[in-house]
Amino acid sequence: MIIFPTIILIAFLFYIYYKVMLVKSRDPLQQAYMNSKAKTFLGIFVFFFGINQYLYYETRLSLFIGIVFLVLGALQFRLGVKSTRHYRSEYSKHRA
């Protein structure tokens, strides 16, 4: 079961990458776009972290905590994808 820790690590690295790029950017529209991408990867991180914790411990408490992480991760991912689509279209309008 090496796949879940790998996904968790990759998602966390992309989250850190987009947060650093957010600080480096001066354009507010680009900052909002980078923040939405970071939210997407944070959602992936939290979602798969919840799955991994349940598979590692397999207790009732880890099941409940894992469910909470799954729900929060899915909501964060959905919010990030939705705002990424919005800011991508706004960025293309701004460029044209």
Broad shape? elongated
Mean pLDDT: 95
User: Portion of residues in helices?
Assistant: over 70%
**Separation of termini?**
47 Å
Number of helices: 3
Please supply descriptive tags for the structure shown above:
transmembrane helix; mainly alpha; transmembrane; 96 residues; YtpI; YtpI family protein
Describe the structure.
This protein is mostly helical. It has one domain (3-95). The protein is built from 3 helices and no strands. It has helices spanning 3-24, 28-57, 60-95. The longest helix is centred in the C-terminal third of the chain and has 36 residues, at 60-95. The protein is elongated. It starts with a helix and ends with a helix.
Quick overview:
The protein has 96 residues and is an all-alpha fold. Helix content is 92%, strand content 0%.
Walk me through the topology.
Blueprint: H1 3-24, H2 28-57, H3 60-95
